[in-house]
Amino acid sequence: MKAKYIIGIVIIVVFLAWGASAFLKTTIQYVSIDEAAKAKRVVQVLGKIDFAAVNYNTKEGRLEFAVFDPKAADSATAQRMKVIYYGVVPGNFDQATSVVLKGKPQDGVFVAEQMLVKCPSKYQGEGGQEYQDMRKHEEAVGKSGA
User: pLDDT tens for residues 52-67?
Assistant: First the structure.
């Protein structure tokens, strides 16, 4: 009877360890640009695009650009990370405010496997800083709401 319990407990522990290991391998953490440049595994990083450094090689389908920390006080002096992305350039790349990159560094360059482009919201007000002002909305459409 005790042998059955011991075998059952061992099986449960093995499956819990296997499940935890599989879960940790599939999770991808968000990291800063500094951490992304030094990462040993696939990570996600958020950065603003340096449009002065964008270059697209149509023959190889390679997009090269640089990103910097979106929280940087001065974008001109912020540390840049060179990025290479193989694939089709998203149609709204030139309008992007920032990008989320999923990949890992190789030979001093961050090679992105996936890229999510973040564009300004169409629901933001003029200047992109504030969200829609309800007073302005009511004045524009009238009290009827139509």
Answer: 889 998 888 899 999 9
